[in-house]
Design a protein that fits this description.
Blueprint: E1 9-15, E2 23-31, H1 37-50, H2 58-63, E3 66-68, E4 80-82, H3 90-105, H4 107-117, H5 122-143, H6 160-171, E5 174-178, E6 185-189, H7 199-207, H8 214-222
Antiparallel strand pairs: 1-2, 3-4, 5-6
GO molecular function: heme binding; metal ion binding; oxidoreductase activity, acting on single donors with incorporation of molecular oxygen, incorporation of two atoms of oxygen
Family: Belongs to the indoleamine 2,3-dioxygenase family.
Keywords: Iron, Metal-binding
Length: 223
Amino acid sequence: MAAYWKGGTHTYCTVDGKDPTISRLRGTLQPAASLPKFLSVPMLALSRKLKRPPMLDYSSTVLYNWVRIDPNGPISTSNVRLVQRLTGMMDEEWFFKTHIVIESEAAQAVIAAKAMSEAENEDELLEHLTSLEEGLWRVARGCLPIMYERQEDGTPKCSEHIFYHTLRPLIGSGSLPFEGDGEPETFKLCGPSGAMSSLLPCIDAVLGIETSSEKLRAQLTIF
């Protein structure tokens, strides 16, 4: 039996025992009180093995969830696609592809940050700092407009209505008890977010900027 957990509801996809090519959705769309044992036990086992929280995170939805359409082409919104989507909607595709392009365009800034940490004199440090500034400007100039791009009919490629009401409930934060052999263990799951990207913490670290929130620092360390 395979299982599909949707938005904290008791909805399962079961494979027909007589014909494995047939699957059926079973359950209700009412909010679930906990994650059932047959899902939580293997999920927690995998979580502990990988030393990752038992949840969908930024790596799963962005960093390891795309391919080039043209293998020899650039990493751009027109040449990458998601491998897996939660909703199957193009609004979701555009939302996550924006992050993919940002990560790619920030390569110069990350390389410059590493070089700054290895600089042997002030001249080298200034040279790499200039490269860092240019890299960040490239991200701002090339990537910020992507978020506001519209289709030919004038509608946004990522509708705020669809994002908030359709996608966000699937990736939002929340607490959920995981059933097991003993008392259910409750996990607070924050869902995938661009805040989990290592890009800004990397830049902050090389510039000596500390996170003002201990809670946020602890969260970023997990991912």
